[in-house]
Amino acid sequence: MDKFSPTPRVRTAGLIHRAALGVLLSFVLLMALGVQHLPLFAQEKSTTKLAAVKLEPLSQLTPQATSPATLQVAAAKGWALSADFDVVLSRKLQEALDRGLPLKFAVDFRLLKPRWYWTDEESIEVSYPLTLSYHALTRTYRLVTPNNTLTTSSLKDALDAMSHIKNWTVIPSDRIRWGQSYRAQVRFRLDVNELPKPFQISALVSSQWDLSSDWVEFQFTPRQEALK
Known about the structure:
globular, alpha+beta, six-stranded antiparallel sheet
């Protein structure tokens, strides 16, 4: 009896079948090891944009929403910023983070006073730093902000916490003029200057390292009665 010799089509189908089984087994193994995300499915480009923003008088913040840092300056009176961002890390940023590189971000706020005879005067410029890191031994992500520290096994939870800035004091009442119209601006960005030098070079030439939203502008006119 002649031995069966598989045709090229049969051999190709067998290879595809084995490759598919290999991918499936790898996926199951990664899930079993507790991997929370797969860089394979990450997008190539980082994106971030402002979803919502508001300025609120410190006197109107509820005690539950007011942080200890805000309580310390509440007596001086002023306004606090709350902002929501949509932040998505690229494949490169996720890989760098999971290999132990801390990523430092910042929310920037500035208040400009329009001048018809010259460029706008910058009355206030402040930044809110955020540091995101991954610890391989505990398989946890750590988010450090000026007011809080979060440790979680989920990158999604860490990004979600990083994307919501609440009750950040940005405008002391002694830095503004009542009734003056100002231009308020806010943005979210990766602090490229805090990266190691080789990564700074990569950030200059690769869009995968570019994580900076556009400046979003809105009008702000302080009213003294709002602080009472």
